[in-house]
Every structure is written in C-alpha cells, then in structure tokens.
Amino acid sequence: MNTPPRKRKNTTSSASTNPESPNSDITPSEDPASAIIDVPAVKVPELTEQEQRDRLHLERKVERAFFEAGKALAELRDRRLYRSTHSTFEEYCKDRFGFERRHPYRLIEAAVVVDNLMQMCPIGTQTETDSSDEQEQSVGTQNETDSSKQQMCPSGTQILPTSERQVRPLTKLEPQQQQEVWQRAVQVAGGKVPSARIVTDVVQRIMERTQVPNTYQIGEVCQILALDNPELRGKGGCWGIVNHVGEFSCTVKTWDGEVTVGVKHLRSFNYLPDECQQMQQICDRINRVYSSELEESVQKFLESLGRLKRSYLTGLEEKLLSVLESEYNEK
C-alpha cells in the first residue's frame, strides 16, 4: 500500500529553512503570534506653507459655520426675505432647512453672543469669505503674527465657540458676563474649546454668586414668570401664594396645587395685607373645587381665575364660583 506524499510537512519545512522566508528570523520555540517583526517607518511629508494656510482657512470655516448660519438667518428674518413663499419665518425655516421652531432663533442668539466674544479680541478673529482669494492669502500672513497679537487680548479670547450648544448657556447673560464666563470656561478646558457642559457649569457658578437674597414673605401674592424654564410650562402668568421661603426659591400655592419656583421666576404684586388675605381665600376656594374630572369649560374658567391680575372677583365670577362650590358640597 502506497503512502501518500506529505506535501504539507514538506512545504512547512521548506519555509522554515528558507533564509528568505518572512518567518526565517523566528526560532521554532517562539510563538509566531508574539514575535516582533521590524516594519520600516514611512516618513509622512510635512505640510507645505500653502497646505498649512488651506488647513487654517478650512478649520475656521468649520468653526464659524453655526455663526454664519445665525447671521444669515437674522438677515432673512429682519428683511422678511421669506415673504414671497411663506407667511411666517418659522414656516419658512421648517420648509427650507428642516428647522424646528426654536432652532433658528437659537442660531441667531448664538451669533449675537459670538459677536460679543469677538469684541474682546477683534484682531485675531477676522471674518473670511469664500469669494476673496486675496483674503485666503492673507491668512498665512496673519498666522505668522498671531502669537504677538494674542498678547494684546484677554486670556482665552482667541479661542471661539465651535457649536451653538456651547453658546446656548450664555444667551441669557449680560454681554460682560458672557465674556467673563467664556474666558473662565476656556481656562477650565485647559486652553481648548470648552464643552457645553463646562460652559454650563461656569454659568451656574456665576449665577449662584450673583443671586439676590430671597426677600419674599409667607402669604405674599406673586406672579409666576415662566421665561426659559421648561418646568414652569403652563404656569406663566399664574399667581400664587407664597407658603415656603427658601434661600433662592419659594414654594407657592396656585389654583391647582403647589410649585417651587426660583426667585428670578417670581414677581410680587405688592398687594396690601388685606388684599393678600383675600387672594388666599380665593386660592383656597378654587383648590377645593378644581379637579381634572371637571368639564373642560369649567376647568378653563377656574384656570382663568388663577391668572387674575387683580385682588378681587367680579360679581359674575363670584356667582359662578359659588355655583361650583355648591355643586362640590352636594357631592
């Protein structure tokens, strides 16, 4: 019986004895998977001066994309350049760019903030346009003098935001506070563009530092100002009775329950003590009869009482509320 040739073994043996084999420098006792093979280094060519200028120019275009969008949207809105096709700016932005209602306004607000930050160091933040070849060439010259010019600027101002989200926490601050927060955020980020989280943290610390002490008193009648607080959605314009005073917030009783509100989201009606007591009685009466199980029209009536800007009920309002109270008592 003939034995088949052992070709696999011969091939392996040949490879192990061939000095030109890729694995010839691995001894039989070594694990090929753990062997170290020298790979010749490939030298990466340095950027030319023109490539460096192109890179800087393109990087600045990327950084300024949301800023340019905000500036353009502001002009479209202010000049009403959408009027030939759309009745409102919001509809135009949704159809043309796919923006939800709030987004274009955020971009516009962000552009205003960046404009303010650029005022701290206008030399190092020249605007660029695609149509100017001469300006592209000037980027290289400006880059050569950046280090000397930045010495004239406050720390961090040569670094600008690269996204709308980084700017959003600054939009509710005064211009001087915006500059202060941005410089501090750049420092916290180690001299780099700070994340939105870092900016938000710095804003929060400054807001806490500058908060006015709570001067509200229990029993005082205040109006709720929703402003930009999503937790107060639906409560804007409602009045409430202060029943707890914290360091920077109050708990107020409204027509349908209690809510804790920051001091900046409250405005006192400055009612006299007798008027505050009268409003307390009205609030208690509404609370006793209000229920989500009531008919929608009745709910709306009670909600309207919860938004009064006077310290009394009219004759008709008094009669209607009395009818509801009698119905409630019968139940």
Count of the separate structural domains:
2
Characterize the biggest β-sheet: 5 strands, antiparallel
Task: Report the end-to-end length measured between terminal Cα atoms.
Answer: 107 Å
Query: Can you give the helix content as a percent range?
Result: 40-55%
Series of H and E elements = HHHHHHHHHEEEEEHHH
Q: What percentage of the residues does DSSP assign to strands (E)?
A: 5-15%
Tell me the total number of β-strands.
5
Strand order of the largest sheet: 4-3-2-1-5
**What is the average per-residue confidence, as pLDDT, rounded to a whole number?**
78
Structural class: alpha+beta
Uncertain ranges:
7-19, 123-152
Gyration radius (Cα, Å) is 34 Å
Shape: elongated
Number of helices: 12
Biased composition (Basic residues): 1-10
Protein name: Site-specific DNA-cytosine methylase
Biased composition (Polar residues): 11-27, 137-161
Region (Disordered): 1-35, 124-161
